[in-house]
Design brief:
single chain, alpha+beta, four-stranded mixed beta sheet, 4 strands
Length: 181
């Protein structure tokens, strides 16, 4: 990852490739945990021990058991989906390096490149550019071009992501002004 000059471009390629490989279109993903367990071999565990911590997820690879992902059971379903995609990004890029993901939205604290990459991958995997852009344009067209907060809430629900994740992804795609969230 240190040699990746453009993280956004690389994560876009990887997300599209994986969605194609797994037979997904560019719409929302149904039972993501089941898909990851059955189609990628990830072994996924909800970890009660992470409750009350700032740990979102863990990734490790075992020669005996294969790729292992743990998530914080205290998190809501949308956060767990994000964590699973984030950890899947680690699996795809650094399979033999164990990793722990902390909730760090603290201003001034920089994430290392592998965390930035995994988050960017999760955003693109859960909200693919083509599908998100098409649905956003359709909603705007139906509303006569006038964007309302309700449209963003509906899109977040449609893709089963948080309102924050959706608005930040649309900002990144320059579909809404930066700072909207």
């Amino acid at each position: 990852l240190d040699r990746v000059a453009n993280i956004e471009h690389r994560t876009e390629e990887l997300a599209v490739t994986e969605r194609l490989r797994l037979g997904f279109g560019d719409g929302p993903l149904a039972d993501l945990r089941l898909v990851f367990e059955e189609d990628t071999g990830l072994r996924i565990f909800g970890l009660e021990q992470l409750r009350g911590t700032n740990i979102s997820g863990l990734f490790a690879y075992s020669q005996e058991y294969g790729p292992l992902v743990g998530f914080n059971v205290a998190h809501d379903a949308r956060r767990v989906r994000w964590t699973l995609c984030h950890e899947y990004g680690h699996y795809l890029t650094a399979r033999f390096q164990p990793e722990m993901t902390l909730d760090t939205d603290t201003p001034g604290i920089r994430k290392d490149r592998s965390e930035v990459f995994a988050d960017a991958f999760a955003a693109r995997f859960l909200m693919p550019t083509t599908g998100l852009s098409r649905r956003f344009s359709e909603m705007l067209g139906d509303a006569g071009g006038e964007l309302r907060v309700a449209h963003l809430v509906l899109l977040a629900t449609f893709f089963d992501v948080s309102f924050q994740a959706l608005t930040q992804r649309l900002e990144e795609l320059e579909r809404i002004p930066r700072g909207t969230y």
